[in-house]
Amino acid sequence: MYFMFYNLIFLINIGYYLIDAEKMEPSIVIIGAGLSGFSAAARLIENNFTNLIVLEAEDRIGGRVHSVKYFEGNFIDNGAQWIHGEKDNIIYQIAHKYFDFGSTAFDQVDQTFLLSNGSKPDQNTCRKVLEIAYKILEDDDDEMEDYEGSLGSFMLKKIYEKLNEPQYKKINRQLIPVILNSIESDINGYYGSKSWFNISAKLDAKYDEAKGNQHLTWKKKGFITVFDFITKKAFGKSNYLDIQNKVQLNKKVVNIKYDSNEVMITTSDGTKYFANHVIFTASLGVLKKYHRSLFNPNLPQYKITAIEKNAFGAVGKFFIEFEKPFWSLDRDSFVAYSFLWNEAEKKEAIRDNREWLFSISGFFIVDQYPNLLEAFLGGEKIDEFEKISNEKLIDDCVWMFEKFLGNSIAKPKLIQRTKWLNNENFLGTYSYVSVDAYKFNVGPKDLAKTLKNSDDKPIVLFAGEATDLKFPSYAHGAVTSGYRAAHEIIDYYIEDD
Ligand SMILES: Cc1cc2nc3c(=O)[nH]c(=O)nc-3n(C[C@H](O)[C@H](O)[C@H](O)COP(=O)(O)OP(=O)(O)OC[C@H]3O[C@@H](n4cnc5c(N)ncnc54)[C@H](O)[C@@H]3O)c2cc1C
């Protein structure tokens, strides 16, 4: 009430809202030009909150969306690659009427299993065990929600229970341990976890994925196309929200000093920015390492606990090009190789310093590019993968293919590789639901919580995938987290009539 009388002179009546004209120009700094930062900026500008800037440490926009040129006008994705799901996926919902998505056929075509001694294991056995594992993940949510331990121990318990049922008695038992290793590797690749024993089964059951096709692609245009939809560029010039103009690149924020009324933000080149509100969107990895030096005063203890106990994982990818594909060109019969390591070749790889190869969960085809194979990596060896030279990466891959295929292959060309874990502006790839987060009862809600003053004015706001209540880790979660933070500011200034 006090706020309304004080500013009475500036009140203008627009439709259903009373808008405080003075306060319509609050200054807002958004830290990070990734999906959540852009989404927050878009929503603010749409609501006439235009007094904002976006500070970005990298020399590009996009953050963990990083489409890189493969050849003229054709992109591949070092970061987000697939739209995971249709229903409730905000990215799909905004874009699907205007963009003809591609798809990677993981759900339609069975993967091909290879053994490290060059023999082809019985595909039916491998696929049966895999099917059992994925059915448990999909169907056993109720039981999982009551399970206190890790996803790894839950999966092992359930898979062995199933395998003891009479219909699976004939399955070759010798292969099971190596197939289980491969399933764990897939799961680590999906979550970014070092081990599936770090993932909380209970928390995992709590989060549903968006239903529908999990592997829609932006074809050759790359995931960066999503920004044309966030800025409405895709809907024509008159709708375009010019956020690009508000972005300052190569501006690494090193300190955020806040009090009950405003913030002072300092970048590494010494520039200072004063604002009424700041929206912080850098990754949970950045927060883990730098929250103490970034925030002055220190963040409240509940937030520090959430930052420390929520997990931020790391995956890797690389793309290799072959002059002639040696895998099937028939898209109906090949989608991916899964590698099953025997002890003998494992020992050989360790002896020859090729342990990073164990983190490859598989090689698969790339939508639209028939000569490319993409590797996805998860687990413990991501740091090692990021640190080896390009030459060694290729040499080790050739060694591995020749072992598993049992014949020689032509040397491929390295097209792209990722280094997210060792990039100081990311320090990993995405968050996941950890056993520790469950133990300490922390989650996205704590990471998302805004620091407000005693008048309920939001001062320091947090967005980014790890803060999304419904779809943490995903690109669509990043978008909705940005919208949520923008609305907190908008709602503070705009009151229902
Ligand atoms: C390899 C990989 C594969 C993925 N695959 C998929 C997928 O297929 N589908 C999917 O839905 N999601 C996927 N994701 C997740 C998705 O990319 C992220 O959820 C989303 O892009 C995160 O957006 P964000 O805005 O939260 O964070 P970011 O994109 O990290 O944006 C934060 C920005 O802050 C900047 N920044 C950091 N520190 C500072 C600082 N001190 N000062 C200024 N700026 C700073 C960063 O440079 C960055 O640009 C993938 C991610 C990776 C890395």
Automatic annotation (TrEMBL):
Give the family per the record.
Belongs to the flavin monoamine oxidase family.
Question: What are the protein's GO molecular function terms?
Answer: polyamine oxidase activity; primary methylamine oxidase activity
Binding residue positions for substrate: 376
Residues involved in FAD binding: 36, 56-57, 253
- Record protein name field: Amine oxidase
Asked if Signal is a keyword of the record, the answer is yes
EC id: 1.4.3.-
Pfam families named among the record's database cross-references: Amino_oxidase
Q: Which organism is it from?
A: Polypedilum vanderplanki
Q: Which UniProt keywords apply?
A: FAD, Flavoprotein, Oxidoreductase, Signal
Signal peptide positions (record)? 1-21
Q: What class of enzyme is it?
A: oxidoreductase
Cofactor(s) needed by this chain: FAD
